[in-house]
Design brief:
With 405 residues, the protein is mostly beta strands. It is built from 6 helices and 23 strands. A 5-stranded mixed beta sheet has the order 5-4-13-8-9. Strand 4 (103-107) and strand 5 (113-115) form a beta hairpin. It binds the ligand Nc1nc2c(c(=O)[nH]1)N[C@H]1C(S)=C(S)[C@@H](COP(=O)(O)O)O[C@H]1N2 and molybdenum atom. The site of molybdenum atom has 6 residues, from loops.
């Protein structure tokens, strides 16, 4: 029903301490900021649910299941604090008893495994900073309105993850030569509401080809930004599949199944898939790598800006399995573009923060700012949404409009 921004409870001192170190300001939310939008509007105009910048907490898009957005206009540092990191759940969050929890590794392997968290923690670990974006991020900007959670800019966040490489666990189990893919399954389950849908409940599950699963940066993660994985982010164990849209990074992981044929699950074919042309025929392909994208944190949508002063336009840019080569900004509706300053990213799969010093005109009037990223392979952002992506992969250039006053 109501979908207004709301502050979540303040977390432990230790976690806040961590992010003060990381340069994140813990600014308390003002109450006026939180109730700025009536939720009767299912697809609000861009910016209409934005409060003043700098508030803490997440934007509640849906309470059950939990779907919380990172307030992107509060972007301050590369790492997103755990209590602001967006949450995307399809079903109710599962209750997990650590004492009975096991990771089962089965299918096309020589020795099936059943591992406790302690056993996983004893294996050699790896730590990396990785950006995760929901494939439905920015959906609110599509017209006509697209079905699904009405994310603005903030269904994307970045954290430092620690865990065991998936391949290390697979090698212990012994991958059979005929193996093709690895299916990851979460403990959460439920029924799909809209057709086409299977009868009865199903678990959230996705697969990846073995070629991806062999990359040592694909982790089974148990720590996030230096603390145990929080419950809403998949405690005790989740996958982190760097460079891919978030749906691949299965939370509350309980089963890893090595398979010899392509997995055809609901979230692989019906949902989180797109149309691709093969020999002149559209075929269904699962979503995989994140596409190149720059997002503007400030100014926020419809932010008023004082005339005649310099303004620091800033945001983040990411490119999935590629690296961002440059970010450009246009202040004239896309006629001319100027290079933004790009900060070094803390890892191959982490977003880069960027900024651009804009000399705001002395006269009042409307403004229209655009940013676009280009990756190292030369791919850049399209001007329009690709209809074959339907309600996903929204990475076309999204202008920010407001008033100079
Ligand atoms: N078990 C399980 N894993 C899941 C999901 C889910 O609903 N259940 N959602 C996926 C989707 S669509 C995204 S975008 C990411 C979000 O991770 P986060 O909630 O930690 O941000 O988790 C993925 N992993
Ligand atoms: Mo997602």
């Amino acid at each position: 029903m109501t979908e207004f921004p709301e502050r979540r409870p303040v977390r432990s001192i230790s976690r806040r301490g961590l992010f003060q170190m990381a340069g994140v300001l813990a600014v308390p939310a003002s109450e006026e900021a939180l109730f700025s939008e009536s939720a009767e509007i299912r697809n609000p105009a861009p910016g209409s649910v934005q409060g003043p910048p700098g508030r803490s907490g997440q934007i509640i898009r849906q309470r059950e299941p939990e779907n919380f957005e990172f307030p992107f206009d509060a972007l301050e540092s590369v790492l997103t604090p755990n209590d602001r990191f967006y949450v995307r759940n399809h079903f109710a969050r599962p209750r997990i008893e650590l004492a009975s929890w096991r990771l089962e590794v089965t299918g096309s392997v020589r020795n099936a495994l059943s591992l406790t968290l302690d056993e996983l923690r004893k294996l050699p670990s790896r730590t990396l900073v990785c950006t995760m974006e929901c494939a439905g991020n920015s959906r609110v900007f599509l017209s006509p309105p697209a079905k699904g959670v009405q994310w603005e800019l903030g269904a994307v966040s970045t954290a430092e993850w620690t865990g065991v490489p998936l391949i290390a666990v697979l090698e212990r189990a012994g991958i059979r030569p005929e193996a093709l893919e690895v299916v990851l399954e979460g403990a959460d389950s439920g029924e799909i509401k809209d057709p086409p849908r299977p009868a009865g409940p199903l678990h959230f599950a996705r697969s990846m080809p073995l070629t991806k699963a062999r990359q040592p940066d694909v982790l089974l993660a148990y720590r996030m930004n230096g603390v145990d994985l929080p419950p809403e982010h998949g405690f005790p164990l989740r996958a982190v599949v760097p460079g891919w849209y978030g749906m691949a990074s299965i939370k509350w992981l309980t089963r890893v199944v090595v398979v010899d044929t392509p997995f055809q699950g609901f979230f692989q074919t019906i949902d989180y898939a797109r149309w691709e042309s093969r020999n002149g025929q559209p075929v269904r392909e699962p979503l995989r790598a994140m596409q190149v994208k720059a997002a503007i944190a400030r100014p926020a949508m419809r932010e008023s800006i004082p005339a005649g002063q310099p303004y620091r336009v800033h945001g983040a840019a990411w490119a999935g399995e590629e690296e961002v080569a440059k970010v450009e900004v246009s202040i004239d509706g896309g006629r001319t573009w100027e290079l933004a300053h790009l900060e070094p990213s803390p890892g191959r799969y982490a977003w880069s923060l960027w900024s651009y010093s804009w000399q705001v005109p002395a006269r009042s009037g409307p403004y229209r700012l655009m940013a676009r990223a280009t990756d190292r392979s030369g791919r850049t952002q399209p001007e329009r949404h690709d209809a074959n992506n339907e309600n996903y992969v929204i990475h076309h250039i999204l202008p920010v409009e407001g008033e100079v006053r």
